Amino acid sequence: MAVVTLDNPPVNGLGHATRRDIVAALDRALAEPLCDAVVITGAGKTFSGGADIREFNTPKSSAEPTLRSVIGAIEAAAKPVVAAINGVCMGGGLELALGCHYRVAAATATLALPEVRLGLLPGAGGTQRLPRAVGVETALNMIVSGEPVTASMLEDTALLDAVAGTDAVEAGCALARAVVAEGRPRKRLRDLAIDYPNAEAYFQFARNTIAATSKNLPAPGRCIDAVAAAVSMPFEDGIAYERRLFLELTQSPESRALRHAFFAERAAARVADVTEATPLRKIERVAVIGAGTMGGGIAMNFLSAGVPVVILETDSGALDAGVAKVRANYDSSTKRGRLSEAQVARNMELLRPTLDYRDLRDADLLIEAVFEDMGIKEQVFAKLDEVAKGGAILATNTSTLDVDRIAAATHRPQDVVGMHFFSPANVMKLLEVVRGAKTATDVLATVMQLARRIGKTAVVAGVCDGFIGNRMLEQYMRQAMFLLDEGASPSEVDAALEGFGMAMGPFRMSDLAGNDVGWRIRQRRRVEKPHVLYSRVADRLCERGRFGQKTGAGWYRYEAGRRDAMADPEVDAVIAAYRKEIGAVPRSVPAEEIVGRCILALVNEGARILDEGIAQRASDIDVVYLAGYGFPRYRGGPMLYADMLGLPNVTRRMREFASAPGSDAVFWTPAPLLARLAAEGSNFNA
């Protein structure tokens, strides 16, 4: 037997060299008289994760032999070829296995065709062979969802000839010997017929379901079309149709955006001066200062990762309430089936509440999550400087304040870093890691590694008011407020932006976060930036105590126990009175203008942030907005969206906004970087 092992770390990707060498190894085995069979497996715990992402968008990705050619060579082989699936088997890796004559898998191996998550469909026969292997419905579910399935769940299908305990290679070799000894024929999944009565009715039902759940995403519907072709067409015609759909999707803006997001998230983890050789500090114990909603949520991230947490408050009532809230959050997860009672008990055992700063002295990482006030934060950090052990990392969860000034409250500014979690901190994936002027490289490296450990998507930001996300959000919200002044209603603004794809419009979002939060920030910024224009309509609401969902009234009204946003005549009256106060004559504002002004405000400020070096790269800005602000993934983030619009078109639209009566012409002047790239015919993500 010839055992061919795919060994292309980290996921045994099917890059050009690997594809070439598979065919070479196959040819060598076929030419060797003493070789009776071929077993293909993967090194380590992975069979193959599919395409080598390092070759995406390069000539090598389509160079011969393509994966389709490799599979064709395997199917045509005169000797039996067995896939020994030893672990993760996804995308092109599963398509490769489907092309083999026989397949065995470790019971714990995971199989998936996740191409739909990149706005694509399997392009090497997956939509045609998988329905023949596991049945139409199981195949469609796997292809449309992209979710992995364990081999043990597919044991009784034509996909697997055997499920092994642990050693898939040994089982594969045993199967190969039996095939040769018994003279079994070489099986090809392509030769299996599909008998599925009432297929068209089923596929129409699937299309209707997908239309409701995957709005604005063409790939799921095309996946259904391709699987339907497996039922209605001969294999060769189905393969050709799959290829046509695949190429169509590769050119779609949605796939471009989803692929951009995929690579952007991976790029965000790379920091210019952080290498594999950068030492990491050991984080075994964490302390959280502040047991409010944010502090409790931050603590849960570490508890769920098995890290002991000491949580500190200055008041016993607040401490008890904070611990109770953590417990309630975990109990809610238990009721939903996401955690067992044993897991909740383990997590709660790791939590130690305290009122004494001295109990923080053994912590390796101390995270401040107190009121967003510079004076209070400086006091907390001065105290942490006294009690924290040498080498401990001191982190602030500030969302806008100057991390360097906070660090200056200590005698160890090199140990201070921003860790801006997003609310609810135990749910939201984004973590802005704010690098101060004196933050040590090993501190930054440790926090970035720790973010992966607790399941966060981390993006490095420099120090400025609001960092990346909230600095851009200020301009987004300024435009939303100006639109109210000019004649739009909160529901019209929200509807336009939700129609664009935002998870939540700005006014519903503000009600959820708490209108008082923005009010405090605006009060500070009016003092620090008196030249910046603000509408005061939001202040008028806050003066009436309308802080959002928590008070039952904000931009909308809310009934007790419900989160449905309902229009409120009182808000209309406040807005009308403010328009009269400033002499504004209301007009009808089209949805296109609402979207243009709010989204391009993000783009313009993002360009300034990038030019100032606050963000390392444009794609980092996109990650912040995809992971933390509900920007539609199928649009790729604000900076890629601008690229796809064309930067000359973006600057032209901004100049139109600048020329409108009463406009903030200074803001709408295109940022220098944006203007330069537009003039060069370039883009942010060149």
Strand order of the largest sheet: 12-11-10-13-14-15-16-17
Shape: globular
- The poorly predicted ranges are none
User: Helical stretch count?
Assistant: 28
- Supply the helix-strand structural class: alpha/beta
Quote the average pLDDT. Answer: 95
Instruction: Compute the separation of the termini in Å.
Output: 48 Å
What is the gyration radius calculated from CA atoms? 29 Å
Task: Please give the number of β-strands.
Answer: 17
Major sheet size, sense and barrel closure:
8 strands, mixed
How helix-rich are the residues, as a percent range?
40-55%
Give the DSSP E fraction (strand runs of 2 or more residues): 5-15%
Task: Describe this structure as you would to a colleague.
This protein is of the alpha/beta class. Helices cover about 50% and strands about 10% of the residues. It contains 28 helices and 17 strands. The chain has an eight-stranded mixed sheet, with helices on both faces. It has a five-stranded parallel sheet with strand order 1-2-4-6-9, sandwiched between helices. Strand 16, helix 16 and strand 17 (about 455-460) form a beta-alpha-beta unit. Helix 18 packs across helix 23 (about 590-610). The two termini are about 50 Å apart.
